[in-house]
Specification:
Length: 318
């Protein structure tokens, strides 16, 4: 495996420009990733959402550095600058993560999963538990095959999961039609998707830095087309390939009780089947609770005790 670095011309999540780096995986594919924080800090691999990219970050680089963590965010295959991995399965991802960690000389690391990225964090928990300190997921969906999994979800979620399971070619066709418009007007799609979100989420998206960051990561997700997103939905919609009841790594499940994207019943289900999992329900919060609780979540993923001197919330102006 080889690692290299080059300057990213888009910038990370609307805050500052970041170096985009690459690792060549064992099968020859190239994986792109970004890093923020302390290069000598505790490593945390961030699993971005669906869709998402390596530009997805929740605070300024100095914030991560002050906490002594090194946050590494890879583009999953087909997103951003990472090569596609055709017909990939959920359990293909942990070996990519392991290659990335090996290339960086990181023996053990924590992992955080935002929204649909949470299922990739859980796959790592199942497949490479010896490499992980702890897993923390926020607004994470559960398996979609169980009865009632889609109760309370939006129409777009219903449609995407059905197409991902039964007609991924049709999902790809529809996404391909929209992709040029998403790349050109990402802010419009961020606003449209988040229409009707609870006030706690709206407060964050009303901040220019956060809304721009969401638009930047969405645009970058579609840089090479829609294949990464289509594969993500197909992976989410089909059986995951492992028993989540066999997970032995400490897992924290954070969920807002007003989450309109992935309803709280998903968090409750995961907590009921993952041994020892801890469910943290956040009253009055929605899908963006990671922004509200970033210090606690970073410390948990790093396997570090919570520090009372760390603020429970990020500054109101990022």
């Amino acid at each position: 495996m080889e690692a290299s670095a080059e300057r990213d011309t888009i910038g990370n999540a609307g805050f500052v420009e970041a170096d985009t780096r690459f690792v060549t995986l064992r099968d020859g594919r190239r994986l792109a990733y970004s890093e923020l924080g302390d290069p000598d800090g505790v490593a945390i691999i961030h699993q971005h959402g669906m869709p998402g990219s390596r530009l997805e970050h929740e605070a300024e680089p100095d914030f991560y550095r002050s906490m002594g963590v090194r946050v590494i965010t890879p583009d999953r295959p087909g997103y951003g600058l990472s090569d596609p991995h055709f017909h990939r399965r959920l359990l293909d991802w942990p070996s990519d993560v392991e290659d990335l960690a090996d290339s960086l000389g990181v023996a053990r690391f924590g992992t955080i999963g935002l929204s649909g990225g949470g299922i990739y964090a859980l796959a790592c928990a199942a497949a490479i538990p010896h490499r992980l300190t702890e897993v923390v997921v926020t607004g994470c969906p559960g398996p979609m095959q169980r009865p009632g999994a889609l109760d309370g979800t939006r129409f777009l979620t219903h449609a995407g999961v059905w197409l991902g399971a039964h007609a991924p070619w049709l999902l790809e066709a529809g996404a391909s039609l929209l992709s040029p418009f998403v790349r050109r007007f990402p802010g419009f799609f961020v606003d449209h998707f988040n229409d009707g979100i609870p006030p706690a989420d709206r407060r964050w998206l009303s901040m220019p830095s956060v809304s721009k960051g969401a638009a930047d990561t969405l645009r970058e997700a579609m840089r090479s087309g829609v294949w990464g997103y289509v594969q993500d939905i197909r992976v989410l919609a089909n059986p995951w390939g492992f028993d989540i009841g066999d997970i032995s790594v400490p897992v924290q499940l954070w969920h807002g009780d007003e989450d309109a994207v992935i309803p709280l019943q998903h968090g409750r289900y995961l907590a009921s089947v993952i041994p020892g999992a801890r469910l943290r329900i956040c009253p009055g919060e929605g899908h963006m609770l990671l922004w509200n609780h970033l210090p606690e979540i970073l410390l948990a993923a790093a396997g570090m005790p919570s520090q009372p001197e760390w603020p429970r919330r990020l500054p109101s102006a990022l």
